[in-house]
Amino acid sequence: MNENFREFLERLRQEKELLDIRQAVDIRHIATLVDQSEHALLFHNVIGYDMPVVSGILRTQRRATMSMGCSKYPEIEARLRQGIDHPIAPRHVETAPHKQVIKLDDEVDLFKLPIPMSSIYDGGPMITAGVVIARDPEYGINSGIYRFLVKEKNLTGIDIVTPNNMRLFAQRALEAGRPCPISISIGTHPFEIMGSGFRAPLGVDEMSVAGGIRGAPVELAPCETIDLPCIAGAEIVLEAEILPTGWVWPEGRFGEFTRLMGGLHWNPLVRIKAITQRRDAIYYALHMPWENTWLGAPTRYTAIRAALKNAGVQVKDINVTLGGCAMWHAVISIRKQAGESKNALLAALAVMDLKHVVVVDDDIDVFNAMDVEWAIATRVQGDRDVFVIPGARAKPLDPSLPVMPSGVVPTGAKVGIDATIGEGIPHERFERIAYAYADRARIGDYVGGKADEAPPTVNASAGKINDLAQKIHALIETEPRYYSEIAEQFSDYDFQSIARALGKLHTDEKLWQDPRGRMCIRGSAFAAKPPVKA
Fold first, then answer.
1. What was the pLDDT predicted at 189?
2. Do 396 and 458 have their domain in common?
3. Are residues 217 and 360 in the same domain?
């Protein structure tokens, strides 16, 4: 799917997922308007700026699904898997549309870009949708998405508090006493956002993953002032260097994927050396947290599924829940064999920054919170099925962790809950209520006037009841049957006659039940034995 950023916006417009706001709008109002809107918004007339702003393009499940060229949200995981398993190397081109306007040195002025504020607690306007490309002399190219808080006309911070490849590159440059060049591509297709958001191992080029997701090479163009590529299809590119200042400059606060405000961060400084842009560039402001969430969750699905496959566990479904910020909670249903539920928990808890994992049987709907809670309530014994792993690597943004000194990687606890049916417990204990004749008796039909026909045996005589009792006796003599099965087998009789016939068998002390509650003949091999008295 070789679609660019503008073509994607037009597709959103055609599908009535994007609204064009053409009247004048104060840039300070953009974030809250996007938060209130069911649509992505393109602001054509931002007061004081010559550039339109688009935001919210990935803010719903439907738009995230559309962005990946999928018809259903779960298909995004397969699209990402395709990119990981079948990467396509980028294609390098000589020039790009964002070279139409080039600003260098004193012409660089970030304050002319319509970079909105978001939360009332933000430390200032910040660039949120820049795909960052960096190179390390030993490890090669890395791509990711990081926030840049604007401080001066050519100076920002870069939020790399969490341990990742970009932080490693910056740390290595700092230790060598040199700046770390980066390109920042703003206004790129979600394919590149998805690819760069995947935490690939060192040495893996995320733009190749993006190419695999796209099904075609990502085109990269050379920068003007640094020896790095940038995304050729971008609306705007910032050419910059992370200065070798270390993590000593305060910035923030930031709105996080947790739907909470993060605290003050300590980060390096970034000097912007050049701005290249289209003449009619559109500024894309990624709106936290949901634009981050809908494309972030599939990266967890892919990693969890791979871990469980390596553990030899058969997976039915995975739900990385929105309540867990699409980061910390997973519910996994498995086709269980003995002992595999604990193996599944251990494998899943090793994935990324997952904190809490619940494993359930394949009869549980992992997308139904009540179903999952019901499994926990009816299948879990805390001393047997809940375990805690202390001292595991944690994410600094977890607000439940103690306050740590800057630069210290925090540790926390991981929790596994085995909500599967325990070995040795009869499965009939977990047979759900299923109402008889649900396949044919529909309330809508009766509201619409349907009437059932009465069988011809209403008010059967004593003789006919005795005959029916003998027929039922013959039926359950060879195989126990549930009451409802007997009623169905003799549906040409009215229900009262069936009940009376079973009543006669009970009066004659011939009727009994097997351990599963099915009707059988007293004294037969099927009959349940009374409990032994103490």
1. 95
2. no
3. no
CB 366, CB 319: distance < 8 Å: yes
The 3-state secondary structure of 4-71, one letter per residue: CHHHHHHHHHHCCCEEEEEEEECHHHHHHHHHHCCCEEEEEEECCCCCCEEECCCCCHHHHHHHCCCC
Number of folded domains that form the chain: 3
Give yes or no for a cis peptide into 253 (omega within 30° of 0).
Answer: yes
Determine if the peptide bond prior to 289 is cis (ω within 30°). yes
Tokens representing 358 are 């619940």
Contact assessment for residue 371 and residue 358, using Cβ atoms and an 8 Å cutoff: no
End-to-end CA distance of the chain: 73
Same domain, 210 and 127: yes
Query: What are the mean pLDDT values of the chain's consecutive 10-residue runs (534 residues total)?
Result: 92 96 94 92 96 94 91 86 92 95 95 91 88 94 92 93 87 95 96 85 88 95 97 97 92 72 84 97 89 77 89 92 84 91 93 91 94 95 93 80 74 93 86 84 92 75 90 94 92 90 94 92 92 70
Domain range holding 471?
Answer: 454-521
pLDDT digits (tens, 9 = 90+) for 308-321: 999 999 999 999 88
Check whether residue 497 and residue 351 sit in a common domain. no
DSSP state letter for 431: P
Write down how long the chain is.
534
Secondary structure element (H or E) that encloses residue 87, with its range: none
